[in-house]
Amino acid sequence: MGCGNPQAIASLKPGEHVLDLGSGAGFDCFLAARQVGAKGRVIGVDMTPEMISKARRNASAGDFPHVEFRLGEIEYLPVADRSIDVILSNCVINLSPDKQQVFREAFRVLKKGGRLAVSDIVLTAELPPDIKNDLDVSYSGCISGASSIKDLQSMLEQSGFSQIEIKPKDESKSFIKEWMPGAGIEKYIVSSTIQALKQ
What is the pTM of this model? Predict the structure, then answer.
């Protein structure tokens, strides 16, 4: 379930190498591929073999020879050190049980001057126990794993990132409340853009 448009904040340039964390069927990768052009490269990483297979079929059908999909976990990226210009992710990092490790890996694979451009959800208040414990619904809805802005800032700093900007999007509350109708989750979480730089 996407919660934003990472391309809108990534400012991708022709020829750049892009990595999408949790690439699913490849939608964001294909959008990125159009922006980086034939001289660029896009890699999608997903932990689900079925999604990798689907994404590869989509790449072939859509004629995206410069897009590649790799099976792997975002905590242990199958990507070389200092090989990526921009990392994208759309409502996936919050699902990781070890976000600090995700950000360490992101820092490792980025080139000097590389940037992180993520759309994800963040906590604006502590989740009530009944929502937090309802994992069948809240986990699949990108809810139970959300971190606070303060915690995300700290994790990014500890991983080595600088020029960190985490910007909540209040307008996202209108669609977030539909994830668990009647539960009032829009009081506790909001979609946000997360940007950071590897200097």
Answer: 0.90
Q: Considering only CA atoms, which of 40, 26, 19, 37 is closest in space to residue 117?
A: 19
- Which residues 6+ apart lie within 8 Å of 31 measured at CB? 7
The answer to whether 30 touches 64, Cβ cutoff 8 Å, is yes
CA distances from 70 to 16, 26, 114, 165 (A): 18, 11, 21, 29
Beta bridge partners of 58: none
Asked if residue 199 lies in contact with residue 162, where contact means CB atoms within 8 angstroms, the answer is yes
Query: CA of 20: how far to CAs of 14, 33, 45, 183, in Å?
Result: 17, 11, 6, 31
- What are the pLDDT digits (tens) for 122-176? 988 887 777 766 655 554 456 667 899 999 999 999 999 999 999 998 877 777 7
Domains, the chain, with CATH or none: 7-121+148-171+192-197 (3.40.50.150)
Which residues pair with residue 189 across a beta bridge? 123
